[in-house]
Amino acid sequence: MSPRAAAWLLTVLFAVAVSASVFRIPIQVSDSVEIIETVDRAPSVAAAFTEGLYASRTMLRPMRQVGTKILLAIAHGIGDRFNLAFRGFHAATAALLIVLFTYVARPRDWTSVAALCFAMLVLTGLHTFGGMMREAYPINHFLLIAIYGLAVFAIAESKGGLLADVAACVLFVVASLTLESGLVILGIGIAACVAGLRGISRGALVAMALLAAGYIVLRVPVLHMIGNTVGERQTGFGTEMLNTSQLRERFGDTPWLLYGYTILGSMLTVPFSQPIAGQWTAFERWDPGAPPLFFLNDIGTSLVVTGIIVWYMTRRRPPDGRRRWRDPAPLVMLATLAGSAVLSYAYAKSEIMSAAGVFYALVVYFAVRELAEVLVRLPEVRLPQVRLKPDTTDESTTDESTHEPVVSAFRRTIVILVVLFVTCAWAWRAMGLQYRLQRGAFDARSEWVLRLPPYSTPPVPLSEARLTPKMLDEALHRGRTNPYLLWPPYARLWGEN
Amino acid sequence: MDAARYRTLLMVALAAPGAVVALLTGVSGMSALVADRPLILAPVPRNAAEAAGNRDVADVLVMSNATDMNARAEARIPLRLHEPNLLTPLEAAVISERAYMIRLVRDRGARLDAEELRTLRCIAEARKDRGTMAYLTAIDAGPLNCEGVKIPY
Fold first, then answer.
1. Which of A1, A12, A13, A421 to mutate to test the interface with B (most CBs of B within 10 A)?
2. DSSP states of B77-103
3. Beta strands of B12-153 (E only): which ranges?
4. Which helix (H) or strand (E) holds A242?
5. I need a surface site. Which of A55, A120, A155, A314 has the fewest CB within 10 A?
């Protein structure tokens, strides 16, 4: 088997693993039923788009309505199979993200394949990745932004041309109308260009900048939209999670303090796995009876990998001596990290940083590949052999033949054990994703009982809900799973109760 | 350790955990796609009592259409009990420490006579769970005698 075939086999396995678990999660009641029922009444895709333009005063996301309308048309076309359409789409996009990741990584030799194995663990083990997979609204737009980001990066790596320029501009428009975070696509394009990639021409970048200006015109003077303000949604501050009224009370007069904290916290969450949604959960409560192994593993593994990235980015690349941080992948990661963090100024959410998490894993791939090559060349340090009766007149005592490579063997063994320890710790985090997705399926399925009458007021009055009964039936009769039946410490080790 | 062996072992250390995770979860995923049954990390309740004990409202709802909601069955509730116990769905619901589960099990056909109510109240008292105690006390706030009632642990 060639290295390239092995890399794609690995990619397919990861893609199947993630997308199959994503597919088992039923459509959620919260954030999904209302929009599905509303959009279903829109007469066309254009009408759904127009509806999306005026759906909120702070959020301009009409592509959410467009995507929902298209998937509803597909669902109706296949016999009202809503789960198949919506969850199938989510699963397919999850697989696409993983395939695109390998595509831009371009593994060619066995060292690359080994680095890819590790990078896949980082990609799927990061908490920002779980957020993209576990929930949908009913389409996970954070996942779409990550896909658009990778696609634009792949275009920037290509030979370019008119088609590439048009594709990049279209992706930018679609991304920015899907989610505010979609604006980072422009940052990705610019960062790739600064790093030396010429797949997207300067003219196309200017066009994207003009489109960004058009986006602002559409938001402010045309639609009279405003940005998020303090107390729009709950967010973490220090070790606390503050609700909307607490936020208004505490930061009503000093919003810049919350904004600055949230931006900084969002930037830290990817490389250090803390804070989570602005909240330093690892330091929230210390229970001597239950040492926080989950936090130790998450923070510890992130620190190691971030350390490797820092080492890699400060190295000089062989051809021209330029620092690695100016290479395309690291520069794009920094742009995505900073851009996404700034766009989440009003409230922190792991999902907003998910595109940055994907590029972080990509840089991990390049960094680990280089580190592996350095470690393979670990020099043999030879120690002089100890003699019982040294003869100082004998010059042969300094001869190479009297030295044993004992230190080398020891150092190499240590290196192998350390590498194995770190990869195993990341493997545990990656397995945690599977656990969380099963929990997601369980929670989403339970919602179909607890969030509907007689136990709760439904999101859409039952008299107006045309699709809810069918979706309820589908949710109850598929995706059976109950993580509470597992050994309880599993949950704690993966950060769940 | 010679250079070739070191290189091989280093690559194995770097790649093996990822490859194992890919293989385990990938095969499990294929099983999930084909048969809606993942091979790992996705256990399912075997009966209504087990579903009720493990907060599985969806399975209680589905199972109640084809099962006797008053029958005892062996239930594993790892979060609450050290070992499997023979329980009715109502007893399991109290052990789950979720009042909504008691309501659901009753709504789906479980009978709550005086003796069963006494047992449930004793279990709730033993577990010191305020939510279930409040729910059951609202039904009967009379004095409670737990003599002879077996509390599952």
1. A13
2. -TTT-SS-EEE-HHHHHHHTT-HHHHH
3. 73-75, 85-87
4. strand A240-242
5. A314
Q: What share of chain A is helix, strand, coil (3-state, %, to 5)?
A: 70, 5, 30
Cα–Cα distance list, A294 to A132, A249, A282, A308, A426 (Å): 20, 33, 9, 21, 12
A306 falls within a domain: yes
Q: Which of residues 63-82 of B touch A (CB under 8 A)?
A: 76-79
Q: Give the pair of three-digit tokens for residue B92.
A: 């399991």
Residue A483 CA, chain-centre distance (Å), reads: 24
Q: Is residue A323 part of a domain?
A: yes
Helical packing angle, A33-40 and A45-53, nearest 10°: 130
Predicted-complex ipTM score: 0.94
For residue A81, the enclosing domain spans 3-378+404-493
User: Per the structure, how many domains does chain A have?
Assistant: 1
Q: Is residue A396 part of a domain?
A: no
Of B23, B26, B100, the CB nearest to A450: B100
| CA pair distance B63, B65, nearest whole angstrom | 5
Nearest residue of B to residue A422 by CA position?
B14
**Sign of CA pseudo-dihedral A124, A477, A448, B98:** negative
- What average pLDDT values come out for chain A (497 residues) when binned by 10 residues? 95 97 95 95 96 92 96 96 96 98 95 97 96 91 97 96 97 96 96 96 97 96 90 90 93 93 96 93 70 81 97 91 94 97 93 96 97 83 53 48 61 93 96 94 95 93 92 91 88 78
What three-state secondary structure class fits B122?
Answer: helix
B51 touches chain A (CB under 8 A): yes
Asked if the Cβ–Cβ distance from B16 to A479 is below 8 Å, we say no
